[in-house]
Specification:
alpha/beta, Rossmann fold, 5 helices, 36% helix, binds S-adenosylmethionine
């Protein structure tokens, strides 16, 4: 095969993988800034014995932060690339036994056993999750949204870019 063709195909594939890194249905990939997340997770009572879910977990950074606080932490992410990257980080870290990354759509999973849920999606995705979570979550579950908030559910606390909700 012509070498120019192989190089062009390689460049094209590289560009496609590069672009797909940022793609997402209910939000493109924009990572949470980590400076405040530990404080927010603590406020939401993320700790040993609690189950944490991140809906659209990106590169897994918030899942790891929740696990470091002792929670059993699960990330759900539609980008296979980001899930594999998160699993790779998880495999190379000591003490990440309480971390799990699931490849899939957040709307096709159930969150009945959650104690804390973290969401950083665009407004439409956050709004779509409101009814689902209100129906599914058990009493006492804390939901955190970042940048965008639920249209109807009243938060019990707002700190900078973060809204915290309690399932009554
Ligand atoms: C704004 S980024 C936030 C990433 C991560 N939560 C963080 O805070 O660092 C949104 C992530 O949600 C994922 N996502 C968007 N819609 C999704 C869906 N329907 N199911 C699963 N993941 C989704 C995107 O692929 C992207 O990684």
């Amino acid at each position: 095969m012509d070498i120019t063709l192989i190089i062009s195909a390689g460049i094209l594939l590289g560009c496609l993988i590069g672009l797909s890194w940022f793609a997402g249905t209910d939000a493109p990939y924009v990572p949470t800034k980590m400076d405040q997340i530990r404080q927010i997770l603590k406020l939401a009572c993320t700790k040993r014995g609690r189950k944490f879910y991140e809906l659209g977990s990106g590169d897994g950074r918030v899942v790891f932060a929740a696990a470091r606080l002792g929670a059993s932490a699960v990330g759900i992410e539609q980008s296979l690339l980001r899930v594999l990257y998160s699993r790779f980080k998880s495999a190379s870290r000591i003490g990440s036994g309480n971390v799990k990354f699931i490849h899939g759509n957040i709307f096709s999973k159930k969150y009945n056993d959650a104690d804390v849920v973290y969401i950083y999606l665009l407004h439409k995705g956050v709004a779509r999750l409101e009814e689902k979570l209100k129906k599914e979550l058990k009493k006492g579950t804390v939901v955190i949204t970042q940048t965008y908030h639920f249209p109807n559910w009243k938060p019990y606390k707002k700190l900078n870019n973060f809204w915290l909700y309690l399932k009554a």
